[in-house]
Design brief:
The protein is α/β, with parallel strands linked by helices. It has 12 helices and 10 strands. It has a 10-stranded mixed β-sheet with strand order 2-1-3-5-4-9-10-8-6-7, with helices on both faces.
Length: 395
Amino acid sequence: MTADTDWNAFVPGEVFSIQEQADGPLAGLTMSVKDLFDIAGHATGAGNPDWRASHAVPLQHAELFQSLLNAGARFVGKTITEELAYSLVGENVHYGTPVNPHNPDCIPGGSSSGAAAAAAAGLCDFSIGTDTAGSVRLPASFCGLWGFRPTHGVLSTQGVVPLAPSFDTPGWMSKSWDHFLRVGSVLLPPDQQGREFGHLKLALPEDIWGLVHPGFGKALKPFTDRIARLFNGEVKDPLSQGRLIDWQDPFRLVQGHEAWSMHGPWIRSQKPQLGPGIKERFEWASTINDEQAQVARADMLKNVAVVNAYLEGAVICLPTVSYLAPQKGHASSAEDRTNALTLLSLASMAGLPQITMPLAVLDGKALGLSLMSRRFSDRQLLSLPQQFPGLQYQP
């Protein structure tokens, strides 16, 4: 393993070891966890020194973390997160930006930036992060990792700092397919959806694929063609009637309203130092009133119903993110950010499981391909890549 000084993945002073079981299904594997998870005897920082200083040191482990220890995994450190997990870039003004091991000159993506860097650099076998609006999926895609966002609610958030509880879920990343699968086998409950995917269509909705950068379709077509052989045909019917780009607006409002409900009182009382982007995002969130949030939630649920109906007959295949990782210091365009959130918010608002797969490289950068399926089909979705004919997984 290389030293963390090469990658800036871990919170300063938070590289230490815990192992409670010598055997179990995860025995021999090392893990890191995002600095939103409580670890007994260690302050939870949530990416912000003022948060760390103003909250009591937890007396017990977060429930999910404890379950991984019980399965035999060995913990090796807490990873940097963007402040209160409210960004997708991966930068942290207090602790610095974790290095993207796949493309060191590019951002790692966030908010689980340190988790992605640690897994991609080989500092651990798998990383636990959280995903509210793409914070596992986007950094996994940018750093060339397997990443999984489970059905909302199937994994415990007890002992995890929230952002927007309607969408928050733990998730995990790994460079190794085998390690990735082993973690899911431990964490995921039995599926509640019994129908086999082979009876469904593989959907590549034209309105989704129309939002991604040129070149993605050609780079990913060899993989989508092979994946399609496992399904009962392929469809490209759009999800929306020409307004998919608008779907992220009500999601953002609901997310922002919940984020301010969670952290507004602390921000007002403590007046913490928040970094650029995070500060302005919370300021905007503070302006969303209850009536606006209620209307936005109603609009969002209408879109959720459309997605759920679409998934009755299909599994959706899409690029994980609409653009490639930008270079450090070169912010992505507003159009790219909007398109990316449109793609990422689909699983978030509907509470769906989504797997991102490190199958392709374009212009030297990692390009993740995702599959998204109905709620409570997590294990089925996780095992699907085992069946792909002839796919070569990128290291």
